[in-house]
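Ticket opened by: R.M.
Priority: normal
Category: complex prediction / small molecule

The reporter submitted a protein together with NAP and asked that the result be attached to this ticket for the collaborator who will pick it up next week. Submitted input follows.
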Amino acid sequence: MNILENVSLKSYNTFGIEVKARYFVECWHVHQICDAVHWQKTNNLPLLILGGGSNVLFTQDFEGLVLKISLLGKEIIREDDENVWLKVQAGENWNTLVEYCVARNWGGIENLTLIPGTVGAAPMQNIGAYGVELQEVFEYLEAFDVASGTIYRFNKKDCKFGYRESIFKNELKNRFIILTVVLKLSKKPTLNFSYADVEKFLKERHIEPSVQSISEAVRQIRIEKLPNPAEIGNAGSFFKNPYISKKHYEYLKQNYPNLPAYPLNENTYKVPAAWLIEQAGWKGYREGNAGVHHRQALVLINTGNAQGKEIWQLAQKIKKSVEEQFGIVLQTEVNVY
Ligand code: FAD
Ligand code: NAP
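Result attached by the on-call engineer:
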């Protein structure tokens, strides 16, 4: 076990925020995780579990142990005419896994193409895009209990998946280290190209929907629309898309006839946070080295050497103005430390 001291986390978070970890260890094997957690507990230090750092905002130095998960490997654990069950180690890159499945025509995660980060972090917020969520292909995961040192299995129900939510982002945050994730992929997939951008992409090019073509459509749309973290620091959507009541929606619709919204059930509507933020005048806004992306208002950016605090303060201003204008309280999607 190689525990490093005073390590810069700048290259370990896609926002590119310069903070230091008092202690840092990268783990490629489960026994290293056991040793690192034992050491952290013996020294009575806080623990921060890190994957690809694409959904975190660091606002200060971390005075504890940052444990980077780099467990690698994947294996087919079951297969029949219809499905493949794939067990994947937590440190595997998510998009590389998507490409691996798409190349074999195994359907289920093609809509989740180009989401950054690791497989182990995917259940944390039940990653989702273009009408598909991880939970649709999720079978179970194995996780190391920091408190007891035991490995437990979590089935779908145990994970309490929700919209960009799971039990691991809430009541069990920092308690379990996800080690492996088992996905059930389909050899005869039901395709989802319901999102307007994907449908339009395929239609305009006269392309038949398939696992490959949907993945490619999503890839190209995302490259066009989203800032590449390698070029400009960001963590994707900063806020979640809010759910509001039908009554609230109808009230807002009177003042904002163009308000986009998606009914979820009889009484609930999902409203795009990007639209609210843009209406409140924030799209393309800059404040020092923090800003709001000019094409996607839900993405906050680090335009230079922003401190995490600057990004966080800007986020609070946006939140306040959206609440004042629309009576909607935005919830942060990114994990703030
Ligand atoms: P990290 O940022 O390292 O960690 C995120 C959280 O998970 C932290 O709280 C961390 O402690 C915890 N964690 C990480 N690994 C483990 C583990 N093995 N066990 C226990 N806890 C762990 N998300 C979407 O849902 N849909 C999108 O379409 C999407 N698009 C994005 C686009 C861009 C450009 C960017 C930058 C981000 C996007 N995201 C999206 C957010 C992000 O990519 C995902 O949430 C991703 O799953 C985070 O993975 P990570 O490995 O980088 O996690
Ligand atoms: P978009 O397609 O312009 O849609 C705007 C919003 O409306 C999205 O947030 C989406 O909600 C919702 N929406 C659109 N079509 C819908 C439909 N047919 N049914 C239900 N809801 C619909 O969004 P975008 O910003 O370009 O992003 C495209 C997809 O990638 C979205 O699914 C988005 O969540 C995902 N994405 C996520 C992140 C992240 O960091 N979390 C970053 C970039 C992109 P949903 O968000 O619920 O899908």
